[in-house]
Design brief:
alpha+beta; 13 helices; Mito_Isobutyryl-CoADH
């Protein structure tokens, strides 16, 4: 298993420029633009083959971007939400599956060093592994019997006491990025007389972990969200990082600021997919010249209106996402950002599909892939019904709305 000494002695880490000035520089903007272009060139292949985009993550690591939200004192960029959103949007416009795995990485590291439930040595180990080696991490929570933990219930995955640690047994599904992950935060319950529930940190190379390649999805096909089986996977005692009695609060759960980061970054993925669809449509309209018209479809008022409608939806998204990332949206409204932005993104791509007809649905064109990808925005927690129910209850409770952060 990787340890802190191994990580610190590794000289493969990228040299990260001064974070404060570099992340807001024209040089960094040019890098993001190039990443969008380069990732877009191979996105169709990753989608077609349902193949994890290892090359994209190698590229991101070369620029230190897998450590974007790792604090500067540990060698990362310590990026703000606004800066992180820019990176996610640029990557997602090129290849959204890469961006989804990246968002999970950013969410984990944006909160990790403040999580006092984790031993300091483990927090630093995971962070430095990201900085030096580009190690990816994600939480594995969803199960066949339980579904998503956001809907309530206890995990079936069990941690049994064993010598100086635990043995993990269980079955996780929708394990986003598993083909590239190094660190797995596994949600489970203990087999004690008074069970505890929480997270056990597991290194991917630990014996007993089996990946079953079940991910064959409509969209976001390159996320490698396969099933993972744990069979007597040994976890040292100190790697039970946030395990508490049932009913007790756990620091690993998202607070209101965590929900804001989740909503903004997830929404930015699918807004970027809609941006890519919009750009494809504009290019297609300019290139389509019917013989009976003698000019491109871009000259027709009907198509100009459609593009205008799409741009209005995306402008709405940009203003909302930028405002939220800048702290100008009440924290309790964070989940509604996801509902609004992803709904607009889906509608924008549907407008493009309706405008193009058969070409838009052809697998020879990128628009069909963008449509499949954008529809996946609906599956992420929190789902639309939960968002609207919570918002409605809050509105009808008579409680005053809070201020922005």
């Amino acid at each position: 298993m990787t340890n802190l000494t191994d990580i610190q002695s590794n000289n493969a880490a990228p040299l990260i420029p001064e974070p404060v000035s570099y992340l807001d520089s024209s040089e960094f903007a040019a890098l993001l633009s190039q990443l969008t272009k380069d990732f877009a060139e191979t996105a169709a292949d990753f989608d077609r083959n349902s193949e994890f985009p290892h090359a994209n993550f190698t590229r991101l690591h070369q620029h230190g971007l897998l450590a974007l939200t790792v604090p500067t004192e540990l060698g990362g960029y310590g990026a703000t939400l606004s800066q992180t959103r820019r990176v996610v949007s640029a990557v997602a416009k090129g290849e959204p599956s890469t961006a989804l795995v990246l968002v999970m990485q950013y969410l984990q590291h944006s909160r990790l060093q403040q999580n006092q439930a984790w031993p300091l040595s483990l927090r630093e180990q995971v962070a430095l592994d990201a900085v030096k080696n580009g190690a990816l991490t994600n939480a594995l929570r969803v199960e066949p019997e339980l579904g998503t933990p956001a809907r309530g219930g206890l995990p079936k995955t069990v941690a049994k006491r064993h010598a100086d640690g635990w043995l993990i047994n269980g079955h996780k599904i929708y394990s986003t990025g598993i083909a590239g992950l190094t660190w797995l935060t596994v949600w489970a319950h203990s087999d004690e007389a008074e069970p505890k529930v929480g997270s056990w940190l597991v290194h991917r190379d630990t014996p007993g972990i089996k990946v079953v390649e079940t991910w064959d999805h409509l969209g976001m096909r390159a996320t490698s969200s396969h099933d993972v089986i744990f069979e007597d996977v040994f976890v040292p005692e100190q790697y039970a990082v946030d395990v508490r009695p049932v009913g007790h609060d756990r620091t690993s759960e998202l607070d209101t600021k965590g929900v804001l980061w989740l909503s903004v970054l997830l929404s930015s993925i699918y807004d970027a997919v809609a941006q890519a669809a919009r750009d494809w449509l504009v290019q297609w309209l300019h290139g389509r010249v019917p013989a009976n018209l003698g000019a491109s479809l871009a000259t027709l008022p009907r198509f100009q209106e459609i593009v205008g409608r799409i741009d209005a939806l995306l402008l709405n998204n940009k203003i909302l996402l930028d405002s939220a990332a800048g702290g100008h949206v009440p924290l309790e409204s964070a989940a509604q950002i996801k509902y609004i932005v992803t709904s607009n993104a889906i509608k924008a791509v549907e407008e493009a599909i309706a405008a193009t007809g058969n070409p838009g649905l052809s697998r020879h064109h990128a628009l069909e892939r963008h449509y499949r990808d954008v529809l996946c925005s609906r599956i992420h927690t929190p789902q639309n019904d939960a968002i609207l129910l919570a918002a409605g209850r809050a509105a009808l409770s008579g409680k005053p709305r809070g201020a922005a952060v």
